[in-house]
Amino acid sequence: MKRSFIVSLALICVFFTSVGFADTPSQLRFMAGPPGGNWFALGGALADLWTQTVIPTTSISGGAIANIINADKGKGDLGFSNTSMVAVAQKGGMPPFETPVENATILANLYTQYTYFIARKDFVEKHNIKSLDDLVARKIPTRFATLKTGTGSEFMVNAVFKSGFGLDYRNALKEWGGSVEYASYSDGADLIADNHLDVFAFSVGKVASIVMQIESQTDVVILGMEQETLDKIGVDYGTVTFTVDPGIYKSVKDEPVKVVGDYTCIVVRNDLDEDLVYNLCKAMHENQDTLAKA
């Protein structure tokens, strides 16, 4: 799937002056994302590229939170995460990063990340739901799912409810008579298509095959959010507002939909050898077109 890469070699090299690279391993462990998502496919493409041009690299499944923690502890060398999450991790004092991470930093921003709340159209029409804010304000019983704890998707869902609405989504949805499940991309798509879920929430690239897969199975609506709510989340997590314009998905037909925006980035452990990291960056920069097709 094509995506707009914003990798810049000059930007990447800025980090070299502030971190102390040293270790030169014989192979690298790249921590990607859960199967079925953009990160899983792109992680494999990056590992193949670096293996061919720089150093043997294996791609393993991971999650945005776990990848930061494992890079910080040296259990992985590089991995995908979100810029908002890295900022929280480096500051500390907010779950799950009670203390600041010291051995993980952003290597490069790659592409925009959208958090989608996908709702069944019949559920939306039954309750005349106008937005996610409307669903929350009216405490509508909702069968809800997101990806498992430790993923960027669950982190952002928690951020939306915590900062946007002042709620713990797990407790709130259950108190309203709904339910909360954790599912993979593919399982969540099947659950909402089979009418076992009302809303499935996750973070992916702007144009995501998983959204199109869900749309091909059942009629859905992407729930937007009020700007005031989006601004609250931005203050706490550094996120921005993105709009989903008509024409990208068949479920967005007339008006743009406002959602939480972030960026997929690569985190790296600070103690990797500087020359090695430079060569990894150089390979990415010189092969952006190839990576964009992954």
Give the secondary structure arrangement, pairings included.
Blueprint: H1 9-14, E1 28-31, H2 38-53, E2 57-60, H3 64-72, E3 78-82, H4 83-91, E4 104-120, H5 121-127, H6 132-137, E5 143-146, H7 152-165, H8 169-175, E6 179-182, H9 185-193, E7 199-204, H10 209-217, E8 220-222, H11 227-237, E9 240-244, E10 257-269, H12 274-286, H13 288-292
Parallel strand pairs: 1-2, 1-3, 5-6, 5-7
Antiparallel strand pairs: 3-10, 4-7, 4-8, 4-10, 9-10
Helix pairs in contact: 7-11, 9-10
Q: What labels would you give this structure?
A:
alpha/beta; single chain; D-Maltodextrin-Binding Protein, domain 2; globular; 10-stranded mixed beta sheet
N-C termini distance? 6 Å
- Which percent range fits the helix content? 40-55%
Number of helices: 13
Main sheet attributes: strand count, strand direction, barrel closure: 10 strands, mixed
Question: What is the CATH architecture assignment of the largest domain?
Answer: 3-Layer(aba) Sandwich
Q: What is the CATH class designation of the largest domain?
A: Alpha Beta
| CATH domain fold name of the largest domain | D-Maltodextrin-Binding Protein, domain 2
Report strand %: 15-25%
Outline the low-pLDDT stretches. Answer: 6-19
Please give the domain count: 2
Query: If you average the pLDDT, what whole number results?
Result: 91
Q: What is the CATH H-level superfamily of the largest domain? A: Periplasmic binding protein-like II
